[in-house]
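tool_call: predict_structure(chain=1)
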Amino acid sequence: MKLKIVIALLLNVCFVKTSIAETAGDFNQNRNSMAASQLSTSEIIDDGVLEDNSALPDTLEISGILTDSTVSRFGHELFDAFNRSWRAPEGARYNISFNERNDPLRGSFVIVKLNELQLYEGFLTPRDDAIQELGKGLAREIRSLVLSNANIDEELY
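tool_result:
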């Protein structure tokens, strides 16, 4: 019974591969004959020059990125607690990164940065409730900093 099913599956696979190859060959032949008859050389070659570069910005800036470079379970839990509590301010520009170093004697040393400004550094306690509270507190504090920076940016520009 199993042998019959396997043979039937192999025959189906071989049939599908053959029909796909025949269809692809017909498509390539039709495409090549159409391309040669309908397109001129100037339409095919792209010289790589933009026709209008006025729509391109002078600088490219990506914001609103959260990066998790933690390596331990406690570091990941801190980032997850932060991420669950984080509410991104609309229109604000920010990049937040969580970095971690492991110290064999003291444990996990975490550094949290907002736009390259170091906001928090410290060792994590292996207590889940303390990690959850730290994540929520960081989310609150960083949100207020991002909002105040956004308000300052609006006043300056």
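agent: Helices lie at 2-38, 41-44, 73-85, 128-156. Proceeding to next step.
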